[in-house]
């Protein structure tokens, strides 16, 4: 009997040791959380005032690396989930040191976040009411849902999809891509001054833009469309070089 | 509790205004201190004396005297009313008219006197407002948030002329900001001022250092639109460089015939 109990306890201890612990850290005094990654990123919200990095299932340390720490260009793994987390002033710098593993991060909805994908990783962000900055520097795309802005997003080759729940009137939002297309959803009653511009792409929208008239003539626009919706409001800029722009009413 | 505090509580103690805990505390102090007991006795005597003192009431003679005086006064008042009503109405009207005339006269005089001052005051307020706006712009352009920096940059679109300090800050945003959306906004703001040689030179300098293909194309586009010949040499450099993206080269090739 004693033997059986011992085996069960040993099993439980072994199981706990094997299961990956999520990494959490308090966000007291943190104004911006800046996340960098080469791999895919999912940033979601939760109700606690802390950063939570979900441990990858499975986050495997290779057999030969046992007892060693993962070291990358971004720093050293100080979280045991393959991330480096450092505080710089009132910014929290969060870097994904793994090159291929997808990561999932949870933050409070009001947190200001800046997310950067440096290689081909795509970025998914949902549910934030604070400021959001997203930047896909190479091949990744960006998908942002259920945010109120202010938002700045840019990509090189990937497309950008954004769906606003409301649009904060406090500061401008700006979304741009060089080769990707923009697909932006705004609530129908959003008051805004829009600037839509593209060099080689096309612009499509079902919003009624009140383009300023000049001496009764409609301004002839080629690459750039400027206009107010719902009597004007905060500035929203959408621009691409080669991709199309789709601006949809929600 | 100190003795002074206890003695402050004595009146309330005697009146029964203290709660049970405080009363017990005071009682305990009283037991221990003969000085306090003496004070308590004194206070008791004083309170008793207050209670025994009768409220003074006016005598009947005083009362009747007062009513007589009041009646007399009322009769006098009636007489006065008659005299004031007997004065001519026209005089009254003239007095009011003179008052109004005086009021208007001094108002007009004051207006005349102040008008110069007033205008200069408005002008100085306007410049103050503009200065305030410029300071706000400059500080927004240094903000940690990209969206705020864009807000600062976009204020420039409402300006008709650029102050050298603002121009410098805009150029810095266009060339040095690590967020591409901010660089693009600064470029757009500056493209309204391409008649300035300084802006043209800054755009050409930016084209020589800019690595982002999107920015490269936007800068080229802006300079070709104003037919700035100086753009040709950096464009050709980009064509020859191995680092330039193929679609940027395509774009340059399609634009070069328009400008040479």
Automatic annotation (TrEMBL), chain A:
Residue ranges constituting the DUF4097 domain according to the UniProt record = 111-247
User: What's the short name of a Pfam family annotated to this entry?
Assistant: DUF4097
- Lineage, top-rank taxon, reads Bacteria
Signal peptide range equals 1-19
Keyword set, alphabetical order: Signal
Task: Name the InterPro entries on file.
Answer: Toastrack_DUF4097
Provide the protein name: DUF4097 family beta strand repeat protein
Automatic annotation (TrEMBL), chain B:
Q: How does it sit in the membrane?
A: Single-pass membrane protein
User: Which terms does the UniProt entry file under GO BP?
Assistant: regulation of translation
Single GO cellular component term: membrane
* Keyword list, A-Z: Membrane, Transmembrane, Transmembrane helix
Give the residue spans that cross the bilayer: 93-113
- Name the Pfam families for this protein: HEAT_2 (PF13646), zf-HC2 (PF13490)
Major location, coarse class? membrane
Q: Which molecular function GO terms apply here?
A: sigma factor antagonist activity
Domain named Putative zinc-finger is located at: 4-37
Q: Where in the cell is it found?
A: Membrane
PANTHER family given in the database record: ANTI-SIGMA-K FACTOR RSKA
Q: Protein name, please?
A: Putative zinc-finger domain-containing protein
Organism of origin is Poritiphilus flavus
């Amino acid at each position: 009997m004693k033997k059986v109990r011992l085996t069960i306890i040993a099993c439980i201890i072994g199981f706990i040791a094997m299961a990956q612990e999520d990494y959490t850290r308090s966000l007291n005094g943190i104004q911006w959380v800046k996340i960098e990654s080469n791999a895919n990123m999912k940033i979601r919200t939760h109700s606690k005032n802390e950063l939570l990095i979900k441990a990858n299932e499975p986050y495997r340390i290779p057999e030969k690396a046992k007892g060693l720490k993962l070291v990358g260009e971004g720093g050293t793994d100080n979280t045991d989930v393959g991330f480096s987390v450092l505080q710089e002033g009132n910014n929290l710098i969060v870097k994904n040191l793994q090159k291929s593993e997808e990561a999932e991060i949870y933050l409070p909805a009001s947190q200001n976040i800046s997310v950067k994908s440096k290689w081909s990783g795509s970025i998914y962000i949902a549910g934030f009411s604070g400021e959001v900055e997203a930047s896909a520097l190479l091949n990744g795309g960006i998908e942002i849902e259920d945010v109120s802005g202010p938002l700045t997003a840019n990509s090189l080759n990937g497309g950008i999809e954004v769906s606003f729940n409301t649009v904060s009137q406090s500061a401008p939002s700006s979304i741009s891509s060089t080769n990707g297309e923009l697909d932006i959803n705004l609530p129908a009653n959003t008051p805004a001054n829009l600037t839509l511009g593209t060099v080689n792409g096309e612009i499509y929208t079902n919003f009624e833009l009140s383009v300023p008239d000049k001496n009764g003539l409609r301004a002839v626009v080629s690459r750039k469309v400027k206009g107010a919706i719902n009597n004007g409001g905060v500035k929203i800029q959408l621009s691409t070089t080669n991709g199309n722009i789709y601006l949809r009413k929600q | 509790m100190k003795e002074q505090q206890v003695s402050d509580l004595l009146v309330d103690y005697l009146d029964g205004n203290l709660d049970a805990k405080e009363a017990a505390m005071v009682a305990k102090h009283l037991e221990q201190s003969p000085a306090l007991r003496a004070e308590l006795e004194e206070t008791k005597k004083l309170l008793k004396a207050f209670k025994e003192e009768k409220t003074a009431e006016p005598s009947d003679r005083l009362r009747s005297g007062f009513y007589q005086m009041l009646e007399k006064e009322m009769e006098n008042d009636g007489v006065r009313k008659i005299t004031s009503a007997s004065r001519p109405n026209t005089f009254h009207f003239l007095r009011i008219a003179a008052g109004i005339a005086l009021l208007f006269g001094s108002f007009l005089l004051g207006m005349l006197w102040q008008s110069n001052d007033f205008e200069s005051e408005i002008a100085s307020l306007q410049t103050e407002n503009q200065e305030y706006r410029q300071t706000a712009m400059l500080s927004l352009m240094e903000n940690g948030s990209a969206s705020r920096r864009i807000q600062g940059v976009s204020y420039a679109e409402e300006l008709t002329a650029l102050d050298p300090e603002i121009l410098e800050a805009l150029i810095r945003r266009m060339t040095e900001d690590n967020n591409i959306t901010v660089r693009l906004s600064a470029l757009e703001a500056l493209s309204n001022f391409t008649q300035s040689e300084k802006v043209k030179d800054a755009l050409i300098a930016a084209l020589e250092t800019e690595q982002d293909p999107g920015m490269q194309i936007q800068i080229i586009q802006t300079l070709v639109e104003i037919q700035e010949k100086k753009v040709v040499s950096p464009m050709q450099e980009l064509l020859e460089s191995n680092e330039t993206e193929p679609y940027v080269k395509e774009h340059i090739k399609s634009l070069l015939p328009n400008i040479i």
